[in-house]
């Protein structure tokens, strides 16, 4: 049974860094944000029991 869902942040859940490469921790890029719909997808997965 599938119990976990794992995504990488870069370009999957978030917008890319300004130069396109992660050269420092993502939290240090104020211009990076979650892509549209990501919070809802993560909330739905959590409600279905995924961590």
Describe the structure.
The structure is a single chain. The protein is mostly helical. The protein has one domain (about 1-15, about 30-50). About 20% of the residues lie in helices and about 0% in strands. The longest helix has 10 residues, at about 40-45. The chain is elongated, with a radius of gyration of 13 Å. The model has no long low-confidence stretch (mean pLDDT about 85).
Give the SSE map:
Blueprint: H1 38-47
Q: Sheet with the most strands?
A: none
Q: Any idea how many domains?
A: 1
Secondary-structure element series: H
Strand content range: under 5%
Number of strands: 0
State the low-pLDDT regions, or none.
none
Estimate the helix proportion, in percent.
Answer: 10-25%
Identify the overall geometry: elongated
Spatial extent as radius of gyration: 13 Å
Overall mean pLDDT stands at: 83
Distance between the termini: 13 Å
Number of DSSP helices?
A: 1
Question: SS-based structural class?
Answer: mainly alpha
